[in-house]
Amino acid sequence: MAKWKKRTIWIVILLVLIGGGVYYFLNxxxxxxxTTEEARRIDVKQTVSVTGTINPxxxxxxxxxTSGIVKEMNVDVxxxxxxGQRLAKVDPSTLLAELEASNQDIEYQDETYDYMKxxxxxxxxxxRDAQKALVKKAEALNRAAKIKIGETYIYAPIAxxxxxxxxxxxxxxxxxxxxxxxxxxxxxxxxxxPESDIIKVSLDQKADISFDAxxxxxxxEAGITEIExxxxxxxxVVYYKIKLKLDNVDERIKAGMSCDVxxxxxxxxxxxxxPLRVVKTEGxxxxxxxxxxxxxxxxxxxxVQTGLEGDDGIxxxxxxxxxxxxxxxxxxxx
Length: 334
What we know:
The protein has 334 residues and is of the alpha+beta class. It contains four helices and 18 strands. It has helices at residues 2-27, 93-118, 125-150, 195-198, and strands at 32-38, 40-62, 68-73, 80-81, 86-90, 153-155, 160-165, 172-173, 180-194, 206-211, 220-234, 237-246, 258-275, 280-282, 285-293, 298-309, 314-319, 326-333.
């Protein structure tokens, strides 16, 4: 009997312990853990980043309007040229032969027409008119032959510098292919800005320029001089072309070099800033959660007014935070 009593007591004690443990775990409050980032005063910068290419303001590609062997090449890359200067020539031998044949044909047709006019009784008016037409045709072919010979030369259309040469003496120049490129004016950068960013860009804004040919830490400054009003569509995306000029040109910069362009569109000095991702909306209001008491996990909702959205996902806070607040970026339960 005493043995059963003892066993019963132990069973009751065990049940109490189990029940208490269950009650404890069911009623235990989960503790929240917070990851925060301090609202701090920094310079909030907004940039538009695109790629571009630098070239002289005015570039003209020059080529022959007839194919042939290059017999004369009077310039090389880097040479300064005057407007109207003869730069190159292809062999005109075949065309000269055609011109000579054309001259002989004109002479023959003229003589025939003169003979017909002197012998009007032998030749009817229709025959004389037909011969007169042959004279005009021969003269037209002669003029065309002379034009073709003129097209065996390349002359400089502007005063400038030769920046490209694609043929040497003895090589065959193909009709309308670029043989020389002449350039004038200052070097300028052209870049295409997507329509989603063009509203942020305006004349005289400054930009940091980094060329692929230079080390990554070497940067140049440039200013926007032109924004084209007409759009350009590239692969179904609308872009607007902008032009920039370097404040200081390094002589090592060459035409056609590619570069990265970071346009400084806006900046707020010493502004309170937080990550944009932590800003929430409540109707037409914006707010953030701040951690007031880390030990007791006390949080507070702070309504804010945002300003400039900067680079790297940072946003300016105009009001609602003064700096130093711990803004909650992530909450988890433990």
